[in-house]
Amino acid sequence: MEHSLESKTNTLFNTDFCLLFTNQILENEAAKGNNFVASPLSLHVMLSLIAAGSKGQTLQQLLHFLGSTSVGDLNLLSLKIINLASPAENVAGGPLLSFVNGAWLDQSFTLKSSFEEIVKGSYKAELKSVDFVTKAEEVVKQVNSWAEAATKRLIKDLLPIGSLKSDTALVLANALYFKGAWYQQFDPSSTQLRDFHLLNGQTLQVPFMTTNRYIRHLYGLFDGYKVLQIPYQRGQDARIFSMYFFLPDEKEGLHNLIQKIKFNPGFLNQKFKLWLEDLLHFWIPKFKFSFELEASKSLKEMGLKLPFKPGELTEMVDSPNNDRLYVSDIFHKSRIEVNEEGTEAAASTAATFLLRYGRIPTPGFVADHPFLFMIREESQGMVFFVGAVLNPLLDA
pLDDT per residue over 342-367, tens digit each? Predict the structure, then answer.
């Protein structure tokens, strides 16, 4: 399939690793029957910031996985992501967006001036001095309040209780918020209960949305699945946001679709060949759910291991013991709601660092069985959110 020019010719926008990572988590969660949503962009910015504080083999490993040749390129990409997701001025008419970064440093340390410059410049992060030694739980509450405020109260308890210790030196976090209204909204009076088929063979009654019979939709038929693209209302700027629904032809075809994406990292970046179609049958379920994960185990399984070992995260903290700094945890939490008006979604990622001493004939789109989705900005081909709906009634 044809790939979008933007995503392949401009190496700055290579976020394939984080798409592969979210796909691996998706595969694991789908096997358990869980709904899933995550933000590849949020994770990419976090790993890029960790790279900015690394050297040696750790830096080389991060650059390799992030598909970049230099920290400078990663910082530039992160700044572009932040500017795209959170422009200096809110543009009237388009989706509401914000993307913010924060850093919490133990009061006994200072950041290296070069790293502080990157944190405040490329990542536009707020830097706060805190006391992890005697007030670790208070810092947990502080970080969680910050993430909750930045995501309009959608993301709560990003850091679990007890996740910060007296030997925590640094916490880095980001928060992404998106709220978009459909270009053509659904009429709530047309929403009705219909059957949704789960992978285990059960059938549930779920609220499904539909549109006026004469509205045409961006639609495409591919090998084993269909694609539907629903645009959001645009603002007075160049940004164009859409939500994509990927529906397997078979009721139990989700696994095959996930495998197709797994073996084609550029799948979600491609320019899908869709056309305007008058769909005879058109139904999409409403859904709302959260998903959270601690990402370090899965990242290590994919081969990204060195940031989680002491030794080379020496470019962050100004301390004689900075060679003992390592990433202990990466917490990621996302939430999404899709209804007749549009979509509201949020994601937040936090990394904690320890200083260790030791095809069908009739055109139709009826999403009555598990499917995938993504929210993408079209002008840059950036995937903001990726997810799967296995049970629209399940709020994980």
Answer: 999 989 989 988 876 554 456 789 99
Burial of 362 (0-12, 13-18, 19+ CB in 10 A): exposed
Q: Are residues 206 and 63 in the same domain?
A: no
Domain assignment present for residue 320? The answer is: yes
Asked whether residue 281 falls in the same domain as residue 337, the answer is no
Q: What pLDDT score was predicted for residue 7? A: 37
Does position 198 have pLDDT exceeding 50, yes or no?
yes
Q: What is the pTM of this model?
A: 0.91
| Same domain flag for 13 and 94 | yes
| pLDDT band with cut points at 50, 70 and 90 for residue 14 | low
Average pLDDT over residues 170-199: 94
Task: Tell me, yes or no, whether 394 lies in a domain.
Answer: no
The whole-number pLDDT of residue 396 equals 41
- 75 occurs within a structural domain: yes
Number of Cβ within 10 Å of residue 9's Cβ equals 9
Assigned domain for 64 exists:
yes
Three-class HEC string of the chain: CCCCHHHHHCHHHCCHHHHHHHHHHHHHHHHHCCCEEECHHHHHHHHHHHHHCCCHHHHHHHHHHCCCCCHHHHHHHHHHHHHHHCCCCCCCCCCEEEEEEEEEEECCCCECHHHHHHHHHCCCCEEEEECHHHHHHHHHHHHHHHHHHHCCCCCCCCCCCCCCCCCEEEEEEEEEEEEEEECCCCCHHHCEEEEEECCCCCEEEEEEECCCCCCCEEEEEECCEEEEEEEECCCCCCCCEEEEEEEECCCCCHHHHHHHHHCCCCHHHCCCCCEEECCCEEEEECEEEEEEEECHHHHHHCCCCHHHCCCCCCCCECCCCHHHEEEEEEEEEEEEEECCCEEEEEEEEEEEEEECCCCCCCCEEECCCCEEEEEEECCCCEEEEEEEECCCCCCC
CATH of the domain at 210: 2.30.39.10
Q: Are both 231 and 217 inside the same structural domain?
A: yes
Q: Find the CATH number of the domain harbouring 142.
A: 3.30.497.10
User: Residues 234, 381: one domain?
Assistant: yes
Are residue 11 and residue 127 in the same domain, yes or no?
yes
Q: Which domain holds residue 199?
A: 181-287+360-389
Residue 263 shares a structural domain with residue 313: no
